[in-house]
């Protein structure tokens, strides 16, 4: 139950609608019982040929009860569903606010398909918490108490039978099935997450699977996962149906007991026979409120496990509060004895890294693939929490990542582009940028696009070089004292690369610039070069210093020159 405490707190925000839905729900249940009880009494009384005035009064009461029941039922549905949808909206907003600060590190912990299943499916499942878990027991108890009080005026023994029926159909049978339901719901939700993950991977990797002739194998795996999920759903469905069938059987048996006991009381002279039909109709009607209790265990476990899966995503991390952070000028960045491994991995990506990037300097970080260059850049961006990072004299742990990102121009290896136009994708960096400013940014990165040109999802209609240049055009739209660039021109030819870098350095004259690059040509203009190897910084210096030292950077330069001719490097 503790998993649902957050949902219960959100319910308190809608207490007015919840109270009104309960009031009208009880009124609808009581009037339904009264309507059918009066029907039974009317039939019995009519057989005795009473005065016409008596029948007229009973018929009028029937009409009033019918009208009251219809209005109450409508109001109950209106207020209960409005409360439910508002609670669901609050839940989505609250969960997103808790999830947003965890990005992008959250993707190192959860696969995208599983995360999508939690965000969409599990949140959607929690809409049943009020309507199917909290609401039915309240209505059941209140309507039964009113009915039992009413029946006690006619027969205490029949009232006691209804009390037994309330306990049996409202609590004992649902409680037993709720105990058995625990293992079913957990398995079904896990299978659903597996299926969502496999489907997501199939769609995202469809092209590669097709090229390497592995689509059939992946489809087979997906079918196996789907079959396991369907089997669990079928077993869970049978469990729910058996619960409903047993509950219905119990209500029927109780109604037969009321009929038998009432007939005995009439024969024994303890009950007027005209009230027998009233008691039987009352019993049959009041147990309609017990029907939702049959499906309550399934919804309870479904809601509980959905809440737990959502909490697993956002409660493991403590969202700290940060003091305000403002970069008034180009900052100095320092990494001191930084060691880092990705979440869930033992092998460290960085080991004892210590390096300083002075204020306003232009630094290139070079090294072989897998040496830790991009990871160091991500740590400086505060994408992952780590000790040893200082930005402008402030410990990284004390800096709000969003405040840092707002004041930093960033180009990563993988840049996302949304379905829309070139204009809309550029406005992500600067919403108020004019068309003239955006067109100038496109020219500075040698792109001939029109602002109205379409961009497909993930930039599928753009080449690798065009994606990188469009990402660079974004940062040309805003001023920032810090530039962190991860292979921003790796897919661009050398001449265009040099032109873009000249434009970049002209804009970032007074800024601190960190450039991760696997190309060693054109680094002569950098203030310093940091050479990394196997997660460690092995050399730091200017281009001339490193070449004269004839160490790791010199060796990399010799390899590059032996692989590419001067003409190839120029191109």
TrEMBL record:
Gene3D superfamilies noted in UniProt: ABC transporter type 1, transmembrane domain (1.20.1560.10), P-loop containing nucleotide triphosphate hydrolases (3.40.50.300)
Transmembrane segments: 20-43, 55-72, 133-154, 160-179, 244-267
Name listed for the protein in its UniProt record: Thiol reductant ABC exporter subunit CydC
Membrane topology note: Multi-pass membrane protein
Any Pfam family hit: ABC_tran
Main location: membrane
Residue span(s) of domain ABC transmembrane type-1: 19-288
Molecular function GO terms recorded: ABC-type transporter activity; ATP binding; ATP hydrolysis activity; ATPase-coupled lipid transmembrane transporter activity
GO biological process terms held by the UniProt record: cell redox homeostasis; glutathione transmembrane transport
Source organism per UniProt: Exiguobacterium oxidotolerans
InterPro entries, A to Z: AAA+_ATPase, ABC1_TM_dom, ABC1_TM_sf, ABC_CydC/D, ABC_transporter-like_ATP-bd, ABC_transporter-like_CS, P-loop_NTPase, Type_1_exporter
Occurrences of domain ABC transporter (ranges): 333-559
Keywords: ATP-binding, Membrane, Nucleotide-binding, Transmembrane, Transmembrane helix
Superkingdom in the source lineage: Bacteria
GO cellular component, one term: plasma membrane
PANTHER family (UniProt xref): ATP-BINDING CASSETTE SUB-FAMILY B, TRANSPORT ATP-BINDING PROTEIN CYDC
Gene designation per UniProt: cydC
Annotated localization: Cell membrane
């Amino acid at each position: 139950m503790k998993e649902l405490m957050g949902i219960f707190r959100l319910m308190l925000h809608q207490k007015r609608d919840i109270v009104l839905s309960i009031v009208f729900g009880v009124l609808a249940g009581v009037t339904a019982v009264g309507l059918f009880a009066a029907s039974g009494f009317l039939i019995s009384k009519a057989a005795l040929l009473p005065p016409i005035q008596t029948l007229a009064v009973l018929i009028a009461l029937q009409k009033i009860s019918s009208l009251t029941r219809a209005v109450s039922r409508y109001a109950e549905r209106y207020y209960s569903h409005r409360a439910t949808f508002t609670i669901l909206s609050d839940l989505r907003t609250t969960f997103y606010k808790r999830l947003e600060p965890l990005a992008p590190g959250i993707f190192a912990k959860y696969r995208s398909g599983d995360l999508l299943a939690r965000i969409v499916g599990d949140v959607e499942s929690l809409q049943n918490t009020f309507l199917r878990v909290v609401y039915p027991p309240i209505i059941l108890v209140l309507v039964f108490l009113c009915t039992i009080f009413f029946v006690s005026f006619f027969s205490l023994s029949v009232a006691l039978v209804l009390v037994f029926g309330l306990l049996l159909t409202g609590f004992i049978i649902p409680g037993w099935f709720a105990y058995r339901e625990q293992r079913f719901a957990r398995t079904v939700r896990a299978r659903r997450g597996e299926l969502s993950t496999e489907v997501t991977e199939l769609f995202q990797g469809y092209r590669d699977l097709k090229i390497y002739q592995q689509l059939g194998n992946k489809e087979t795996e997906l079918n196996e996962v789907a079959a396991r999920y369907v089997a669990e759903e079928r077993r869970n469905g049978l469990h729910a149906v058996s619960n409903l069938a047993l509950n219905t059987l119990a209500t029927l048996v109780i109604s037969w007991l009321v009929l038998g006991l009432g007939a005995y009381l009439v024969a024994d002279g303890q009950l007027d026979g005209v009230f027998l039909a009233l008691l039987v109709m009352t019993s049959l009607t009041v147990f309609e409120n017990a029907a939702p209790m049959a499906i309550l265990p399934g919804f309870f476990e479904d809601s509980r496990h959905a809440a737990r899966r959502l909490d697993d995503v956002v409660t493991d991390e403590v969202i700290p509060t940060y003091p305000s952070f403002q970069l008034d000028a180009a900052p100095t960045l320092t990494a001191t004895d930084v060691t880092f491994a990705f979440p869930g991995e033992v092998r460290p990506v960085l080991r004892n890294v210590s390096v300083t990037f002075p204020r306003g300097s232009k630094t290139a970080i070079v090294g072989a693939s897998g040496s830790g260059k991009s990871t160091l850049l991500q740590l400086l961006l505060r994408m992952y929490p780590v000790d040893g990072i200082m930005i402008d004299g402030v410990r990284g742990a004390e800096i709000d990542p969003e405040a840092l990102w707002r004041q930093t121009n960033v180009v990563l290896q993988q840049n996302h582009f949304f379905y829309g136009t070139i204009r809309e994708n550029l406005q992500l960096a600067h919403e108020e940028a004019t068309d003239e400013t955006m067109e100038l940014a496109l020219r500075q990165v040698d792109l001939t696009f029109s602002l109205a040109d379409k961009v497909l999802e993930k930039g599928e209609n753009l080449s690798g070089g065009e994606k990188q240049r469009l990402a660079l055009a974004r940062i040309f739209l805003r001023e920032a004292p810090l530039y962190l660039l991860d292979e921003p021109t790796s897919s661009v030819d050398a001449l265009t690369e040099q032109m873009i870098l000249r434009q970049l350095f002209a804009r970032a004259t007074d800024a601190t610039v960190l450039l991760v690059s696997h190309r060693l040509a054109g680094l002569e203009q950098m203030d310093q070069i940091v050479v990394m190897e196997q997660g460690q910084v092995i050399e730091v210096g200017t281009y001339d210093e490193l070449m004269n030292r004839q160490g790791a950077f010199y060796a990399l330069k010799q390899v590059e020159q032996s692989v590419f001719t001067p003409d190839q490097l120029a191109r």
